[in-house]
Amino acid sequence: MKDLYPVFLHLNKKKVLIVGGGSIATQKIRSLLQTGCEIIVVSPHITQEIQTWLQEKNVNLRMREFLPTDVNDIDLVFTATNDSRINVLVKMIANEKNILVNAVDDPPHCDFFVPSIVRRGSLVVAISTQGECPGFAKLLRKKLETMIPSSYGDFLAFLGRLRKKVKTHCKEFQERQSVMKDILYDGILEDLENKTLNEVQDKVENCISTRLR
Q: How does residue 211 score in pLDDT terms, banded at 50, 70 and 90?
């Protein structure tokens, strides 16, 4: 198997088809709700949670078995049915239209794999085993969750605001790069582990104030 190319997708206003309405489909929908995509579910049966999302107009429902026409005008497809025959059919039809498909827990019928995620605000750490053993990725995720505190997400938001300030003051790319290198000083991760968030932010702000005088 060739190495996979890791990416983060902008799905805002994209149409995402979910084939299946059980617990696996529910988990998949839950992870997609914050992306801004339009979610279309195809299944003769759905969970109560999907029913709630339907009532809240967070998903659209085609309450029946999958039809080939369901992939029309779709940007991305997930199959979550535990039926390999459906996975084969969906992938074949979708690929004919150059649409990528993920079949949950069915690597041979996947065009891409969804990584195990550690999320701290805008900080996202993705772990993939390229379909070899998703369970091992989940174990690593649990370990990383204990190592990456929520304060990292807060600090990243702080850095994002500073970066905008640097862009305003420094018109040349090399100058901006030099300032950001000073802000992200050696030992900053150790400081985040051993000092309070406010202490680290004060140190960084003092640094940038000196550089932008």
A: confident
